[in-house]
């Protein structure tokens, strides 16, 4: 499966109480279960007004369908070509 980074605009998401956030994450998991194993959520980063999610999927259309069914914003879907970190730096 390919890796995808999803950008979601959610103004004020950091101010949303944890209990409400847990409901959002649970809804996401429920929709993913309906869609089957060809789309998987790895993790997300929450900022002031956006959520950036890393997903594995066989096609970006599955990510769009997840957003549609869950009522989630999906501003951008970007294929991840590579992951780098300091351990890959040439010495």
From TrEMBL:
One Pfam family named in its UniProt record: SCO4226-like
Top-rank lineage group of the source organism: Bacteria
Name assigned to this protein: DUF4242 domain-containing protein
